[in-house]
Fold these 2 entries.
Entry 1:
Amino acid sequence: MKKLQEQPSEKGDNSSIELLGPMQRRKFFRYAGATAAATTLLLAFTSCNDDDDEMMPTDPETVDLGSGDTGILNYAYALEQLEAAYYAEVVARSLNMFNQTEQQIMQDLKGHEGIHRDFLKAALGSAAIPDLEVDFSAVNFNDKNSILTTARTFEDLGVAAYNGAGKLLEDAGLLTLAGKIVSVEARHAAVIRDLIQNGTFSDTANSQGLDPAMMPTDVLQAAAPFIKTKISANNLPQ
Amino acid sequence: MNIFNIIEEIEKADPEVYSRMDSRRHAFKSLGSIGKKTALAAIPFALGSVFQKAYGQSNSMVLEVLNFALKLEYLERNFYTQALAASGLITDGTARAAIEKIQMHEAAHVDLLIATIQSLNGTPISEPTFNFGKNFPDWNTNYQTFLTLAQAFEDTGVRAYKGQAPNLINNDTVLTAALQIHSVEARHAAHIRRMRGNLGWIVGAGDNSNVPAGAQPVYAGEDNLMQGGINDVSTVGDGYSTAIATGAFDEPLTKEQVAQIVSLFE
């Protein structure tokens, strides 16, 4: 947490607090967080849960990501669950189809996505959504091209998802944390793309040199064919 | 007209003014990055100064970050432009195509940053003079030295944007654009690293990055294992190796650290 608190935060600027009128408890923690060394992620999450008061009712079968920063972290956790499950499957079933360098890449991707998933789960604690049921029936694990193009879909989608969700986060520390993960996803995406066709590493960028940024609803729609569990993003920040 | 009358007047026109002001972030959202200027111009000075006090600092911070990013993008654009022009440096066709693609993105980033700074009524810094040969004299004759510096610049770019993102949290439009550049820099970095036979990701404090001592500051702190509230992130789940735990997270660089790296080329 020390690392997070070292991040310069505009929201730590006390000079304008008086102008903001009655402060919600959540916001108080944001301001307090900039100086209070004892603030923990857990505390931030607990305070975020104050937003849950106005939750929309959902189908009991459906996993609701929640609201506020917690909801965004659960959204990231859902995507990381999908990626981690995918590379675990690739390594378990298809590793011998790849050359030595590619095998290391697949092992590293399995490790990186696994630690992203387990880290987010630990950070979310009791606010974490349950394990999702995945569906990779559309993937041919005996076909290198099928494996790599699915990986490309996941990695590019992950990058666009984090890029789009950044602005929805309220906590500067969590924004940094998401930033630490998204650039690694972009590295994965580039390497996978190059394995499919060398030189395509950054072909996602538009004429302004910008990668896509997608909103949660669109991302979840794109990921839906691979996730059996129904997910609701209804309470995420817009 | 005193300030309370003004707020009262605004309240009549916009009953939600207080909820709009519940945080600077939301105020930015409702006013929009360009609309904010127009709104400020249209309201009397007294209220303008209130807004200035509440929001002005973040606007100047945004401009500062954008100019900081512009300097790095100038550096990258200049570096690749010169490298592509250096005779006999990049001879392989595939490598050349990749470098041309990267150069094109960096040039687009320069244009975009200049336009954004101007749209916020700021002044873009002019392009500094860079001296890539200052510490690496064979940079434009030795292909491997060129690639080493390219990797260092891209990895620095990734870490620099990451370090500044929190300073943009109040301006959604600029933050998103910065993140969209950030991930493109990471894609470049991964490709250049692979061109050098390295992994696409950074393990430890440059353990797998293969750079000379002079470029080590680029990887300072990348061996961090503390993420969020977790002291050693490798302990989560069933446990992970240090290589996986450091490779899975890129770390931010401060402005000062970036300035130190850039000074090697000024």
Entry 2:
Amino acid sequence: MLDLLAQTGLNAVYAASYISLVAVGLVLIFGVMGVINFAHGELFMAGAYAVVALYADLNVPFFAAVAIGLLFVGCLGLLMEKALFRPLKTNPLGGLVASIGFLMILQALAVMGFGVRMEHIPPVTQEVIAFTDKVRLPVARLYVIVAAVVLLSALWYFLKRTRFGWALRASAQDPEAAALQGISIVQTAKIAMFIGAGLAGIAGALTAPLVSVNPHMGHSVIVTAFIVIIVGGVGSLEGAIVASIAYALVHTFVTTFYDGVLADIVGLSLMLVVLIVKPTGLFGSADRA
Amino acid sequence: MISKIVKSGLTRRTFLKSTAVTALSAGLPGASRAAGSTIRIGFLAPLTGAVAAWGKPGLDGCQIWAERVNAAGGIKLGDGSHEIEFVSYDNEYDPAKARTGATKLIREDGVSFIMMLGGDTWPGVQPVADKTGMLFSTLLPSDLSPDTSTLIAPAEVHPIYNVTGVEWLAENKPELKTAVMCAQDDALGLPSVATYLAAFEAAGIEMLDAPLLFDPATTDFAPVVTRLISKDPDIVCLDTCYSDYVHPIAEQLFQQGFKGQIISCTADFYDQMIAKTSEEFMEGFVFQFPDFDDPALNGSNINFTDPNGFYAEYNRRHPGQWGAVSWEYASIMDLWKAAAEKAGSASPDAVAAAMKDGKGKHAFGDADWWGTELFGIDNALVGDWPVVAIEQGKARIKDFRSIPDWYAKHGDLLVKHMQAYDQMWDQRS
């Protein structure tokens, strides 16, 4: 039983890692831009396909492919900011609808470029850290955990300890007041989109060898991310991380000790309970952060 | 809108003429064909979207089939020889699009027969089948019911053939005593769960746990696998999981240190699974779909024309794309062609009557039209089915086993488990 608990705990840590990378990116974009980016799951998918193209097809070293994937998806974020969100800034629903359209375009491009079938990605490593015979952590999963800890720590440092980070937070709290202080709203929006999209991209890139890469893979990821940010409090980065950990723990343990279908129901119930008890989410406030 | 069309040059006379022709072609599909004209076959399946892997490779296989038949002189009916042409419509696995596609294929394209994947798309098409009398085929016999008289399942009897793999395993590896199973919670997974449960019970293999069902949207299979192997089973059964699930589950079994037997309905692209795990890990993996370069397919019992040549040509055109459906639609066409030539006509009712007259030439041997107990109608062609195992990195047929023989001995178990999962034809809505 101890082995089973430990293995389930390791599975949950991995799940929390990639969910938090995606969710924090989504929250950052919402916080600064005020836009719910429905295409965020497809940015995750784009990161995975970057690895397919570079690592699987062109034999680029895996970590170089991941880095290029991060930059590529970050640039997709910049494109979305300029082409979709900036022109539609005054239209409350415009950005949301545009992101749904962009989602479909990205899916169609993936189908045109790679076909509809699951992509095969050679394993990055088959090394496993075996704590016991039944408690094992594949090193490829460890990469995701390390990346999440490093990147989210770096983001925390950036937001709390740098001038750009302060500007970003100021823009998120009160765009007009920030603008009056000389902060460029356009610049902060670009930074937020690049980081937010890049986090989804790197999550997709790192998990690509571990999941089924296909044009529709973003769907389940975005559903999970939405649950997480609602539980954590829309707009709260800390809330997104805490809720990712809570959701991953609940979902993984329920899947292991009951079944996966019940785990989904429990995950959604968790969101409903939080909404009933605290409609703004665990760390949310009435105003977006 | 109508006035615009009329203004653009459509006269009342041409409108009535075209309507009459359309009505005729809808009412008498294939009957007014001139000698030497091309016979059109409809291919109504998902060609894009999440289920395209069970549609598009089938169309690719049909194109090869048509080229081979046409090169050999076409299909010989009462009024002479005809070439075959496939007309495809992408239903995107959507019932409404499938209905539109069926209507178009019948009314505009004048097809004589329509092949489908079936499943969720069949209910959309059934009213069109009822109205037109068109002959349809499905790969999923769970579409069959007493109300689907023009629907046949002549290629595969999913999931009933899965009993053959378990039966073979029990006879050849009697040391395997316990099993666990996982499946996605959907229309493909659940009847397969019931079938495997019946097969394990018949074989005296103990289930250590209830089947673990997971949401089809699952992407991380580590928790599923942790649960599966927590009770140290001898066998892990992957049921009829989609290949998008089979691959990551197998990889997780490898990474979490499982060393027992794996059995699965399919192992599409198993070479990729070997690449992600190892040849040793995949050795002995049992499933139900052979590669068609298998020497066992050259036997006299096989009714598929030149399986080795077909496989070679398929791989030349679509390298790395071979899967279960690559040959199944083509094998249906072998049956359809034989029936049409026997009837001397391509009309749906004549072909259906000829096809069901006596034993059917199923790809894996002569078979019977069967299914009343499970489907409410004898429209599934059932006989032998191969058991395949991976040996030194290559899929090889280990045996052909009779599904009707198994059912004669253990049918009550299958019905019991099907009923428990609400999968009998009279329980399905």
